[in-house]
Amino acid sequence: MSADFIASFDEFGRRFWPLFLPVVCLFAWWFHYLLFKRQLKSALFRFRHRQIAGIARRRHLQESEERLRVILSSILTGVAVIDPRNRQIEFVNPAACRLLGGKKNDIIGRRIEEFELAVEELSGDDTGFSLLPDQPKQRHLTTLNGEALPVLENTSSIIIHGAPFLLKSYLDLSELVRARQKVELLHSNLTKRVQELHCLFGVTGLLAQALLPRQELLQRVVNLIPLAMRRPHFAVARIVLGDCSVSSETFVQTSWHLQRPIFVGNAEAGKVEVCYIKDPSITSEDIFEREEISLVETLAQRLGRHFDSKQAEKEQSVFSQLLDSSPGGLFVVEVVSQCFYYINNHGCVLLGLRHDDIVGRQFSDVFALDGDVAELLSTADEDTSTSCQLTLQKLHEDHSPETVTAHMHPISSGTSGYVAFYLEEGEKGDR
After folding, report:
1. pLDDT at 237
2. What is the mean pLDDT of each run of 10 residues along the chain (431 residues)?
3. How many Å separate Cα 92 from the centre of its chain?
4. Residue 167's beta-bridge partner residues?
5. Residue 359 and residue 138: Cα distance in Å, rounded?
6. Are 84 and 166 found together in one domain?
7. Best exposed site among 70, 107, 350, 391 by fewest CB in 10 Å?
């Protein structure tokens, strides 16, 4: 059987051997075709995936670039990109163009040193920022118009297309500087107003001290005036009132002076004078501010009113002594209220009443107010040009009348009308 099998296999090989090689090649081709198809499909899938991912990345980069462009265009901080090799400006945003006062084409390509001034050491008097080693620093930029612009600069390093660049940002401090200057000006004005108030309060307190002699009072007042001026170290003052003249220790007459008169009554009795021993004006400012002029005028008016009242008190004291030494009784009645306004000592004796008991009382409580007297009192406020003699009925404590003769003279004081009665001791009728 083995020989027959071998013979059969040999005959089969001779008959079908030419077909064996094509079958094997066809089978190999079929196998490789199936394998290549799967690899091709996988390769096409990966290629498509990579293509979609690349499109997404490009879109993301475009969106990021557009977002960065919008951010740089909309921020108010100036941004500039500088090439450190040649110090040329490669990019500026619109805010930087506004700071430098030009267009982008006029700025790009120029050296950064054309716009930057030397770095300044910051102090608290400039903008309120402090300069530390790793913090932004203040400098001034020179605009295309030649103006110096205060800014706060911050510098960073960035990589663009594999090359290093400098990114500088500039924060405009001009508004901050102007605001700080306004605050300092307001603070300075407030300090001056406080000094003026101290001066006025001090003068008011001195004028309230009635026992101070005139010379000492004026000397203390004149010492307060320079402290209320804008330049107190250069200010001196002098007050002249009648034959009395007082001044600061270093007073000297200069061309920078301010003078206001002191009126006592209706007459000019002296003056208040303030001088600067050095020129206090800055640029086009006036030598004396409006508040300083107002202060000196107020002091002159207060001194005038004070000494006017002192003179009036002295005159009133003399007049009261003369009235009290008069042999007759004098009393004044207010027309509207018909109350006693004033009575001298002899009038109190004639009426038999104390001064405090009669001032403020009704006229009808002391004298019988008949028709003629009531009519005279009612018309006295309208006619103050005539005086007359009339008979009054004085009422005693038991309401018994006593006829007396008095001289009545209407007088006026401002908007009020008064009637003065003069009664002599001998001018009495029968009880």
Report:
1. 92
2. 66 67 74 70 80 86 83 85 90 89 89 76 41 67 88 89 89 89 87 85 86 88 88 89 87 86 86 87 68 89 87 76 75 80 79 78 72 57 54 60 69 66 58 38
3. 39
4. 81, 156
5. 79
6. yes
7. 70
Nearest CA-CA partner of 203 in 224, 219, 182: 224
Please name which of 242, 430, 241, 425 lies closest in space to residue 351, comparing C-alpha atoms.
425
Q: Look at residue 9 in the predicted model and tell me its pLDDT.
A: 63
Q: Are residues 242 and 295 in the same domain?
A: yes
Quote the pLDDT of residue 61.
83
221 in the same domain as 282: yes
**Number of domains composing the chain:** 4
In a shared domain, residues 292 and 205: yes
Tell me how long the chain is. Answer: 431
Boundaries of domain holding 57? 46-74
Shortest CA distance to 150 belongs to which of 122, 124, 109? 122
Neighbours of 309 (CB within 10 A): 13
Instruction: Give the CATH number for residue 268.
Output: 3.30.450.40
Do the domain assignments include residue 320? no
What is the per-residue DSSP string for 121-142? Answer: ---TTTTS----TTS-EEEEEE
Give residue 238's pLDDT.
92
Tell me the C-alpha to C-alpha distance, in Å, between residue 121 and each of 106, 124, 138, 154: 30, 10, 7, 15
Residue 310 confidence (pLDDT): 82
CATH value at residue 386: 3.30.450.20
Res 127: pLDDT: 42
Q: Answer with the one of 310, 341, 363 that is the final residue of a domain.
A: 310
| Domain annotation covers residue 395 | yes
In this structure, the answer to whether residues 230 and 286 fall within a common structural domain is yes
Q: Is residue 223 part of a domain?
A: yes
CB of 333 within 8 A of CB of 361? Answer: no
Per-residue DSSP letter, 68:
H
